[in-house]
Amino acid sequence: QVRLEESGGGLVQPGGSLRLSCAASGFGVSNSWMSWVRQAPGKGLEWVSSIDASGTSDSVDSVKGWFISSRDNAKNTLTLQLVDLKSEDTAMYYCVKGPRGAVSPRGQGTQVVVSS
Question: Which residues are within 8 A (CB) of 80 and not within 5 positions of it... i.e. 6 or more apart?
Fold first, then answer.
């Protein structure tokens, strides 16, 4: 059974950083497309970043260069490093098993709030 559990969210000031983690079970992240999506208050799901089995990652233009996706195969986890956060990055962040466009299966999410 596929299970994903996100962690690492919190309250951070503009310009701050966070490191989100996604612990996977029931499958190996090493040979899977994995993605991050987010949902801002009152809005739909937005694709943020994906990483393929070879480790090649891609991100939406608005976060490219600021959000870095990586994978720890030994720990079977996915990580999203967020830097230089802005208020518009406030959202619930979810990890998803699948490529860009996939929205499930996903975890319960971790909340990121960027506010001074």
Answer: 19, 20, 22, 36, 48, 49, 67, 68, 69, 93, 95
Q: Which two tokens stand for residue 81?
A: 């490093």
Binned at pLDDT 50, 70 and 90, residue 102 comes out as: very high
Q: How many residues does the chain have?
A: 116
Residue 82, classified by CB atoms within 10 Å of its CB into exposed (0-12), middle (13-18) or buried (19+), is: buried
User: What pLDDT score was predicted for residue 57?
Assistant: 87
Contact 79, 20 (CB under 8 A): yes
DSSP 8-state assignment for residue 70: E
Sheet holding 18-25, edge to edge: 3-7, 18-25, 77-82, 67-72
40 φ, ψ (degrees, to nearest 5) = -75, 160
Place of tokens 């619930």: 92
pLDDT in tens, 22-47: 999 999 999 899 999 999 999 999 99
Tokens of 5: 């559990």
